[in-house]
Every structure is written in structure tokens, then in C-alpha cells.
Amino acid sequence: MTADDIAIPSELLPGDGRFGSGPSKVRREAVEALTAAAPTYLGTSHRRDGVKQVIGRIREGLGQFFSLPDGYEVVLGNGGSTMLWDGLVFGFIDQASLHYVFGEFSAKFAEATALALHLRPPVVIEAEPGTHPPFEVAERIDVFALTHNETSTGVSMPVKRPGTEGLVAVDATSAAGGLRVDPRDFDIYYFAPQKCFASDGGLWLALCSPAAIERIETLGESDRYIPLSLDLLVALTNSRLDQTYNTPALATLFLLAHQIDWMLEQGGLEWAASRCDDSAHRLYTWADKAAYARPFVVDPGERSHVVGTIDFEDEVDAGAVARVLRSNGVVDVEPYRKLGRNQLRVALYPAIDPDDVEALTHSVDFAVDALRGDS
Q1: Which of 265, 293, 327 is the last residue of a domain?
Q2: Are 345 and 309 in contact (CB under 8 A)?
């Protein structure tokens, strides 16, 4: 029997089969709201009040959602987190950075920094995929680069200040909105909206402390060459006007604002993180009990509650299971391509119903039995 021949009973299937780690599930209600607003919103100038009001909602909503202290600001720009890495290389790192690397995405920022001729070579503290490195420090470091959640491996790392010197920059692309964080523990906490915030990519957002703002202003006003599209001071100046330097994707902004409003209405960050906790508990409890599967991340304290990775025993082909699921409308649970493991990777973001995560586990059990010829 091939994967395409296996029909999972409808009573076992999730109500919504989207479990991609990014782009993530976008809530139907947000799409309907965008459709209703489209005649007066889409296709309008991003310098006019209609769009600026949405950006204002985003900046104010994120400040409330993350309980930002006085003096912290929400800055945004186009290009996603990948673009922001280059912006941080030009306009946030003064001399040298230290990077805690434990997967594909935490490594990318370190690689971008290593290419910068105006900086000293970065210090890299690395751990094997499936765990995270210790909080070691080094001398003459002015930026500590953390990753709150490594999307490629399903490992979460605490956000804290490694030392008394240096600013803390946290890549929170798949963590922000689903994992708890204390703003006092970071100087810049940056992310894109296509994960927990259930929107589309192409935008970066950064929660900046007063110290981060000072660094951005100092380097932005220095004689260092910074391309305008990567200039964080340009982004800061425009953000204070509720706009971006160049034209943003209006649909992305609207969906992001809608998701922030929805999560605030439900109870804010604590509600969202608790919902992710529930989904993670259901996924990992099932994997711990399944004879053919186990959580990839061995230490329960390091297991992500927003992106779960489940290894399969060799006799079960996770790729075949994913094909069965896809043919039944349950999509994007394949592992990160470069990790190359026999596993499934499951998004557990706030927009995903924990009951759907549990239904996913039942669907996987059925698919495995069917592939074995047991059903």
C-alpha cells in the first residue's frame, strides 16, 4: 500500500491540518477580516492614515503584549529576520559579538557577522543539534547573540544576560508570542510575523531597550557606512512615525495586527504561552509513550513548546508518514531539510488548537499502522 492509498478516518483528523513551522497557519477569522477591509485598505498608500493606524496598532499592541517597560520601543522594517541580521552587523554590533549556535538559524547570524570586515571575528560557542550551548562569555564583546528558539531543531534556550557587559540581541523569530520572556533580560528581541503571530513573512520587528536605542543612534550617526535599507536608525525614525522606510506588504501588516489583537483579547503572552505549553505536553507525552517514536530533544527542559521535533525508529519511515498525512490534508510536518533526520517537525504556535495537535498524534498512529499493514 502506498502513502496516497491510505485514507485516515475523518474522526481522527485535525480540524485544521496546517502544522508548518513557517509560514504558519493563518487564522480564518483574520483572513475574513482582511477581505472585509480590503476595499478601503489594500491598494492604498502606506504613507496615509489607514496603513499608519495599523502600524500604530502593531507597535502599541506589542508593547502591551510583552509588557515593555518605559523607554522600550517597537521598531519594524522590511525584509524579515535575515535582512535584520545584516542590519545588526552594520548598525548594532560596535566591535565584536559572541554567538550561541545550536542549529541552522543561530549559525546564520554568526556567519553574517564573520563576513563583516569592519568587525573583529565573532566568538562562537556551539552545541550539537538537539541541545543548546552553555552561557560562556568572552572578553571585549559588546553584543551577545542569543536564539530563543532554534526552529530547525526544536530546542529552546533561556533568555538571560550572560554577563554584565555587552548588549543582548535575541533572535526570537519562532519564539516571540509563544514563549515567555522578561524584557529586562534583553536589549533587542527581534522576530518576523510568519510564526507565532500568524501572518506572512517579509517584515522584521524588534523590541528595543533604551540601551539598544542608544547604540542604534550612536552607530547610525557615526561615519560607518550603512546602506539605507539596512540602517536601523532609519528604521527607528520611520517607526516612530508609524511607517516603514520603503513600501511594506499591507496584508502582512493587517494579519499581524489582527493576531496581536486576538491574543491580547485571550489574555496576552501568558495565555499564548500556556496554550503552547498544552500543545507541547500533548505532543511529547504521546512521543514518550509511542513504541516507535521519541522526542528528538532529550532534555525535557530544552524541548521547544513552539516547534516540536519527534524522531522515529529506523523501521518507520517518517517521510512516508508525512506523505500519508499530506494526502489527507495534514501538511508541513516534514523535518528541517538540512537536519536530515528521520523525524517529524510540528509547529505548536498559538493559532494552532491543542486539540488539533492531539488529533495529529492519532492520525500519525493510524498512518504508521497502515504502512505496516496493521490496519
Answers
A1: 265
A2: yes
Phi and psi of 137, rounded to 5°? -125, 170
Spatial contact of 78 and 246, defined as CB atoms under 8 Å apart: yes
Contact 101, 125 (CB under 8 A): yes
| pTM for this entry | 0.96
SS (H, E, C) 57-84: HHHHHHHHHCCCCCCCEEEEEECHHHHH
Q: What is the pLDDT of residue 120?
A: 97
The residue from 246, 265, 284 where one domain ends is 265
SS3 label, residue 275: helix
> What span, in angstroms and rounded, lies between the C-alpha atoms of 252 and 135?
35
- Give the E-state strand segments of the chain in sequence order: 73-78, 97-101, 123-126, 143-147, 149-150, 155-156, 167-171, 188-191, 203-208, 293-295, 307-312, 343-347
Let me know whether 246 and 142 are in one domain.
Answer: yes
Domain that holds residue 292: 13-26+269-372
8 Å CB contact between 83 and 230: yes
370 SS3 class: helix
* Buried-state track 59-90, b at ≥16 Cβ within 10 A, e below 16: bebbbebbebeeebbbbbbbbbbebbbbbbbb
111-152 pLDDT, tens digit per residue, is 999 999 999 999 999 999 999 999 999 999 999 999 999 999
CA distance 217 to 212: 9
Whether residue 2 is contained in a domain is answered as no
